Amino acid sequence: MSAVSEADVKENGVEAIIENVGAVIHSKIKLAPGALTLLIGDNGVGKTTVQRAITGSIAHSGKGLMPRDGVDAGNVEIGSVNCRIGKRLSYKGDPAETFVLIEGGEDLQELIDPGIERASSADEARIKALIRMSGATIPTEAFVSVVGDPDWKTFTQAIDVSKDNPVDVVAKLIRWLQSKARSAETESQQATGAIAQIGEIPPEPEPIDASTLSVRHSELIVSIATAKERIRAARESRESLEKLSEVAGDPEQIQSQVESLSVAVDSVKDQIRVCTETAQSSIKSLRAELQLEMERLNAVYEQKIADVKVNLANQLEELNASKTKSETLLSEATAKKKSLEEFRATRDRLMKESDTTWTAEAVEALQSEADETQRKIQQAAVDKTAAATRRTKIDALSHQQQKKAEAEKAAKRYRDACDAAPRILADSVKHIPGWSITNQSGDMRLMCEHKRGVICFDQLSPGEAMKRAIDVRCRTYDAANKIPLISIPAELLASMSARARHEMLQHIAEHGISAISSRCSEDGEPLDLHYELLQAKPATASEVANGI
Predict the structure, then answer these.
(1) In a domain, 98, yes or no
(2) pTM of the prediction?
(3) Residue 119: which CATH number?
(4) Which residues contact 54 (CB under 8 A, 6 or more apart)?
(5) Is 422 exposed, middle or buried (0-12, 13-18, 19+ CB in 10 A)?
(6) Which pLDDT tens digit goes with each residue over 489-534?
(7) H/E element holding 19?
(8) Separation between Cα atoms, residue 412 and residue 181, nearest integer Å
(9) Residue 448 burial (10 A CB sphere; 0-12, 13-18, 19+)
(10) Overall number of domains in the chain
(11) Which of 98, 125, 305, 382 could form a disulfide with 114 if both were Cys (CB 3.0 to 4.6 A apart)?
């Protein structure tokens, strides 16, 4: 590296004046295209303040800038532009007429060295910075094309990604897809276990078309009920017709018959009344005659009754004695008869049993048949239960197989989507030559084309990394005859080797970029704030050999 000539500074440089900002009282800084303005000084002299004041004024952003203690306001002048830094920021002129700030340093720092040890996590930060620096945008359709509209809606309903950058959205989406895939795989394993527990399906029993018989039986029941109802209705109709035919005829004739019957009824009523009166008179006369005759007969028959009672008592005594004797004889005869009947019955039974054609072998055969019949009856019950169990097993097996198939399909879909998710970010940087994003074992890695092939970005040297980062930023801005300005963090510059700085200055010179950075004073250098303009020069063979 070498200092830019004074002639180049006067011809192409732009002077920036910073007054009363932070620790800076008054400082003049030169910015030139193709050169690095290196701020030098001791800690606390205002190197970072000057760097922020210049980039903040160009970007119309005074973030972190304050007036010097005891002063109401500070000023930053860049050419004909003035920025007043006080309670409020105010601007006169447009610094964008001369400069365009293409990098304030934050994204540059995060892209080259995010300060994260784990490679995949560091690359996530680098990808965020790369997307911001390249100005890439990722439409919702890119996510939908990978995961599908239903899953994307479910994901956005479950996880709020409205304020996340694309890299965080992809990272959350991958974790969500992995979780869904694991859940689906667990469901598949559970279904596999359930299938194993179901076991073998027993053979299908002989089918019985009970459904057809049931339908036919229902049809017959309906037909019988319909026929009975029709018969009953027909019978009632016939009875109604018969009753109707009995009363049918000429109304005048019926009226004449009614009048004749009415006269006959009145005549019968008179006859009944006369008969009633005659019967009452006869009954009264007969009752008187009956009373006199009964008194005479009572006296005659009382004596006859007494004589008959005596004769009957004697005869009854004789009959009772005869009855007792007869009962005794009857009891003895009955006992003998019963004994004789029992004897005959026993004899007949024994004769019949002794005259049988059955043998022990025949009885054994019958017993065997009875046992087989009983076994078949039991087997029939078992078959009935087995048929129900088989149907249950088949249904359960079908359900678990379908559940397993759906779970495996879902798991594959989620795993495929998970593998494809980084492609969303990769597609967003396709327009940047030499850059790509890959999925390595589920981790997103930032890749670059190199003479060794496609390698991880973190394998680049600091100088190569800086050159590529600046190139990305330059590609996304059209300077339009303005000076592109890049702010390089002091820590990043300090981490670069002499060769890396030389490569960076060469790239700055090739693109006409004005860069600004800072470092602390070294031994023998002034401690107050000052600057140097550095530009690249062709390296000699000895410098290359010594790594300068």
Answers:
(1) yes
(2) 0.53
(3) 3.40.50
(4) 16, 18, 29, 31, 76, 78, 485, 487, 516
(5) buried
(6) 888 888 788 887 888 888 888 888 888 999 999 888 889 999 999 9
(7) strand 14-21
(8) 7
(9) middle
(10) 1
(11) 125
